[in-house]
Amino acid sequence: MKSLPLIFLGVFFTLAFSWTGIVLTSQIQLKEFTPATPDLVDSQDQPAPGGKYLVDGETIKNTPGMTANPQPLVGEAQRGKLVYQQMGCLYCHSQQVRRQGFGADFERGWGQRQSVPRDYIEQDRVMLGTMRTGPDLTNVGLRYSELWQFQHLYDPQITSPGSIMPPYGFLFEVREISPLTGPSAEAIELPEAYQPPAGYEVVPSRRAKDLVAYLMSLHQDYELPEIKFTQ
Amino acid sequence: MSSNPSLLQSLSPTGDADISLKARLGEVDASMRKPAMLFLVSAVFWLLLGTVFALVAAIKATNPDFLGGTEWLTFGRVRSAHLNAMIFGWGNNVIFAVAPWIMGRLSRARIRHTSILLIAGIFWNIAVTVGIFGILRGDMIGVEWLEMPSYAAPLIIITYALVGVWVIIAFRWRQTDHVYVSQWYLLAAFFWLPWLYTVAQIMLIFEPATGVVQSLTNWWFAHNVLGLWLTPIALGVAYYLIPKVLGRPIHSYYLSVVGFWALALFYNWAGVHHLIGGPVPAWVISAGTVASVMMVIPVLVVGINHHLTVVGLHKEGWASPTIRFVMFGAINYTFVSLTGSLMALRHVNEVTHFTHFTVGHAHHGVYAFFTMIMFGAVYYMMPRLLLREWPNAFLIKVHWWMAGMGILLMVVALQVGGWIQGLQMNALNEDGTPVYSSFIQIVENTRPWLWLRSLSGLMILIGHLAFGVNVFWMIFSRRRAGEQTAPTLLSPTTEQA
Asked: What is the ipTM of this complex?
């Protein structure tokens, strides 16, 4: 093996092989995925049973009148996703539910069904995550209230004593209560030990509100043609 | 160099040095002096900075209030700054110092127009600085191993091209008939990484792929940075240094051919094992698992080949700083790779996935294998570039013991702690409810192990400081008459004793 072109061809084809297999083939497989209703119908609007994987516009289509999922993020939640990225939430939290019997994702209450590729087709940045220093967040929007989220971000010890999650106090503003307009409607309630000095209030910044909107938007509580609950 | 002929004087891998060859290698060394020193000094700088980032992140993982009010140093950012400083700052800089130099030496080809390499060095360090600044500032991209903001990418791609082209030119105009194992590894790595990086940039940043294809591309890229860049470079360096320092040829040329092509074929399919159980096509995962297990072949082949080259020369190896570090790395290559193959099995992965076990594994690979071999290479290269010896053997010993024991402690702590964490996350009572129903309880149980990780990080920091002091001491020391000319060894060898 002495020739540069031969070595080059070898290293080229080995890498091209895996790229074709892992990336290109999956892209071809997934690129036609569209949001889907839990059940599909044929061109006469009759139920089309069976594990139809792709929605083919001509023969099989979404059930009219039912909501197709997943839906794209909009507005605050979309901006909040950027905050999620910038803070590196991804490094401690996953956004994927494994199937029943593989791990204990169902039993821990992280989802009613396994996550499938279609769940992620509307996302411009997919953050499945590879770490669960903290819990999975696939369905975190269904688990807690907005207030809980604000308190938890302000200082995780408020809602989860013993947590090792970093506090995001810098996403909040501690400010003097305006003598003219009184306490802000946006100020968050805090337990005694975490309250600011008298005359002050803790108000979430726009980024904190966006982030909470994003967290509240996270849910996979719909069925798809290829996946039903408790599957 | 005369005191110890059999150990360090053998300048060709076959052990027969002659004057014209020495002169030739001297020319190669002289041509690479400036660029290699630029890359090396930058590498040491990033190594120290990356270690500080690591320690901050590690302390934050047990004490979240530590620097908790500073947005720039929040865990997610400082952790990514650590990763990027280590991979792109330390790893790539040290590779850019060592790889063209070894390629030049093996090809007996002087590296010409080294000012281009100097420019590459400046570009590279600007790119890494901008990238890490961007991460800390909040421009981080949510893709593991590609966190640097996209404005750093063009400079990175240009630098890969500027350095890679010299490796290829040196090989193309080589003055030797024989092609060494190291040369394939270096050549292949310098082809692979720019492709990987460019494809990943396009498919993830400029024109993001659909849905989970992003995750597949992400892990195809990220695992291949390890498998097709750091690994072949470190193996190439080990294949060069072991025979060179010990004065004995590689045990089997045939085995090294098998090892190389098996690695090329299997490693680049393995990355998707990071998505086992995830929402990706099942066949891709199966292919990734098969490839991960097939990696046993190149790993054992390389392990056997290295071992049979060293066998019987352990005493000499122990005396040489280079061989101590390189053998530590080579042995850990076998261990970390076999662990990796096991972790790709679905039932093992069910426990280790999403836990600190994987973090331990990553450090095992990048540090205990790659970084230790590169330390060995630096200990070998610097005396030849600067024509003076390492000023202090004690500092080398401190470096070796602190780095070696530190990384072992880290791997054990994270993998034991991670395994427990994984078992506890999955544990179910007979009625199907989780045994550890409170997640916080599991988090609390990982804390002691994370404390041990911080301790190991402190040991490694001490090791790196010793290394850094020795490097700068060597650079700034003047050559004096009657100065030591024999290599700095860590213990007496057979002949001296």
From this structure: 0.94
